[in-house]
């Protein structure tokens, strides 16, 4: 068939490619309707320290698609970035995180919990991004110190001056910043040193390989050493096994997130886990 079609003919009917394109167009169209139809929801994944204390959670979005079920953000966030829908989605996530934090302020123990929110580079680079966050902080009262914004190294593709300035404006309000998926991007050390960050988040690919791949272990040690020199906290993501935890602890990492502690949970389940203090026990067991 290919021979008959000849050399200069583009064949449109590669069924696999076509179904990929269809899915994509369909998802893009559905994505535009997802917000008014209230199809997004948030999961919360525990972040804990080396004492086994839950310090807070990362907020992770899910899309409850009418036909496809729960769609992963790994699938729809890139689409939302291309169409621009990410701005509205990001605004919603941030506002919901503020609602949650405000609710927790009524509880004597939950009021210290922090939330980490993922911010897309597209969202961060909107000219009114800082204004929007400032307005949210004014509206929600004293919660800025409990919010941590996770950026990825891709924000650095833009002018350093602007990125630094935006971060600084929000830091002055009390927000904190973490660099997500660290080690997978292109950030130069010179640039990194200038960013007013609070935390580096070691990418889960290094954590996954830490026990089997000596170079992953070396990279993690290097990141931790660098973070210490720059005065930054380090958190490891994607922690799944006690063996990984043991190595991370030995290397001096003091903050963790991953299935070993808990999968991302709906808010009720997260609150229950926190109230039962169930985590401390399992983490302590892991440390022995
Ligand atoms: P991320 O921010 O690096 O989040 C970590 C991802 O790893 C999450 O996937 C989480 O569920 C998963 N994970 C957590 N613990 C483990 C573990 O122990 N093992 C393994 N294998 N995976 C683990 P998720 O929820 O599918 O999110 C994927 C990505 O989508 C996130 O990566 C983040 O970049 C993006 N994302 C999620 N929510 C939002 C959001 O509200 N806004 C934006 N802009 N991006 C978001
Ligand atoms: Mg993240
Ligand atoms: Mg990450
Ligand atoms: Mg990631």
How would the blueprint of this fold be written?
Blueprint: H1 2-5, H2 15-34, E1 40-49, E2 54-65, E3 69-71, H3 73-83, H4 85-104, E4 114-118, H5 121-124, H6 129-140, E5 147-152, H7 160-172, E6 176-182, H8 189-194, E7 199-202, H9 204-209, H10 214-230, E8 233-236, H11 242-251, E9 255-256, H12 267-276, H13 278-287
Ligand C2E is lined by residues 45, 60-61, 72-74, 77, 90, 93, 118, 120, 150, 180-181, 204, 237-240, 258-259, 264.
What this model shows, in words?
Residues 1-5 have low confidence and may be disordered. The protein has an eight-stranded mixed beta barrel, surrounded by four helices. The N and C termini lie far apart (64 Å). 50% of the residues lie in helices and 18% in strands. The protein has 13 helices and nine strands. With 288 residues, the protein is of the alpha/beta class. It has helices spanning 2-5, 15-34, 73-83, 85-104, 121-124, 129-140, 160-172, 189-194, 204-209, 214-230, 242-251, 267-276, 278-287, and strands spanning 40-49, 54-65, 69-71, 114-118, 147-152, 176-182, 199-202, 233-236, 255-256. Strand 1 and strand 2 (54-65) form a beta hairpin. Bound molecules: ligand C2E and magnesium ion (MG) (3 copies). Residues 58, 118, 150, 180 line the site of one magnesium ion (MG).
Query: Which of globular, elongated, flat, extended, rod-shaped describes the shape?
Result: globular
Bound molecules: ligand C2E, magnesium ion
Strand content: 15-25%
Largest sheet: 8 strands, mixed, barrel
Total number of strands:
9
Number of H- or I-type helical stretches = 13
Rg is 21 Å
Mean pLDDT: 91
* Order of strands, widest sheet: 1-2-4-5-6-7-8-9
Q: Low-confidence segments, ≥5 residues, pLDDT <50?
A: 1-5
Structural class, from helix and strand content?
alpha/beta
Protein name: EAL domain-containing protein
Domain EAL: 24-278
Organism: Methylomonas rivi
């Amino acid at each position: 068939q290919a021979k008959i079609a000849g050399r200069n003919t583009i064949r449109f009917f590669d069924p696999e490619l076509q179904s990929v394109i269809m899915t994509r167009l369909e998802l893009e169209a559905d994505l535009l309707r997802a917000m008014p139809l209230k199809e997004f929801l948030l999961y919360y994944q525990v972040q804990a320290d080396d004492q086994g204390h839950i310090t807070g959670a990362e907020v992770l979005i899910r899309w409850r698609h009418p036909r496809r079920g729960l769609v992963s953000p790994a699938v729809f966030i890139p689409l939302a970035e291309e169409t621009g829908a990410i701005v509205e989605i990001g605004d919603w996530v941030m506002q919901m995180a503020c609602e949650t934090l405000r609710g927790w302020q009524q509880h004597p123990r939950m009021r210290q919990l922090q939330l980490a929110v993922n911010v897309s580079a597209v969202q961060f680079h909107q000219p009114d991004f800082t204004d929007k966050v400032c307005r949210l902080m004014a509206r929600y009262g004293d919660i800025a110190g409990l919010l941590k914004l996770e950026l990825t190294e891709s924000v650095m593709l833009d002018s350093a001056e602007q990125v630094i300035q935006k971060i600084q404006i929000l830091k002055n309000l009390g927000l904190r910043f973490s660099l997500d998926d660290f080690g997978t991007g292109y950030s130069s050390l010179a640039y990194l040193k200038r960013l007013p960050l609070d935390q580096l988040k070691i990418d889960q690919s290094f954590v996954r390989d830490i026990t089997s791949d000596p170079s992953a272990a070396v990279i993690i040690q290097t990141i931790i050493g660098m973070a210490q020199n720059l005065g930054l906290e380090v958190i490891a993501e994607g922690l799944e096994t006690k063996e990984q935890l043991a190595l991370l602890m030995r290397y001096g990492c003091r903050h963790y997130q991953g299935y070993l502690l808990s999968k991302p949970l709906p808010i009720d389940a997260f609150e229950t886990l926190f109230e039962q203090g169930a985590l401390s026990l399992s983490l302590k067991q892991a440390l022995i």
